[in-house]
Amino acid sequence: MLPVHMSGEETSFAVHCGDQMFQKMAVASDSSPNETLFHVEGATWGTSWIVRRKLYEGPLDRSPSMHLLGFRHGRLEIKNGWVVEAAGDGRVIVNLTHRDFFTKQHSAINATVHTMAGDKVLVTMRHVADEGAMMDARVGDGTFATIEKTDKELALVGPVVLAFESSKDKPQSAWKVRVAAGVDLSLVIVFALCRIEMRHVWGKKISLWCRSDILYAAYHMNSGRYI
To answer: What letter would DSSP give residue 7?
Structure first.
């Protein structure tokens, strides 16, 4: 996808999502000095009928920032495909498909990567254990990355914290990503984007469902009046 961002050795980085609506993210190295490698920004609400995100090189406060790729939904639905497009020419470089909501592997993703040589490579993301917090990304039987939800303090390192200090948004979720040597980091970030979006969007839906059930029960227990 983006050969300039290949990992030279096995590495790990922290990903921090700064708001519930998945509009801002920062990606920082776990190694000192914990520099911010990439950041993600969402489209302004009302400017698009579908969910869009853009991946940039470097920290949030860098100007100008190099736009690397765009990440969008195919339709305005929760369960549907994602499309990743190159900045500039807009060519499709990855198509991602969410497999099945109602299974233990409800976060499973299949991706078709369109290489610069014109080949199509199947990449999958699956839970390491049923309903576990960690998922891995692989080609065939070879795992090249793992994505794990962590406690906030484990991932809020250096510039990731600083990137959001001036924002009114409070920390929402933090993630640890481990990557093998010789891997395109932009591809791994695409999978991390999918995983984090599923956590935020589905968590919001489940919360709304639970609140609806509670209100419904309270309504009937109080003779038709909400408490």
So the answer is: -
Long-range contacts of 129-137 (CB under 8 A, 24+ apart): 130/104, 130/105, 131/104, 135/107, 135/195, 137/187, 137/188, 137/191
Rounded mean pLDDT of 45-64?
Answer: 72
Instruction: Please say if the pLDDT value at position 102 is more than 90.
Output: no
Tell me if 205 sits within 8 A of 166, measured CB to CB.
no
Note the pTM of the prediction, 2 decimals: 0.72
Distance CA 2, CA 34 (A): 22
Q: Provide Rg for the chain, Cα atoms.
A: 19
Q: What is the pLDDT of residue 4?
A: 62
With beta carbons less than 8 A apart as the criterion, state whether 95 and 113 touch.
no
Q: Is the preceding omega at residue 33 within 30 degrees of 0, hence cis?
A: yes
110 burial (CB, 10 Å; 0-12 / 13-18 / 19+) is middle
The first and second tokens of residue 22, run together, are 């998945």
Distance CA 112, CA 168 (A): 37
Instruction: Please check whether residue 40 is in contact with residue 20, taking contact to mean a CB–CB distance below 8 angstroms.
Output: no
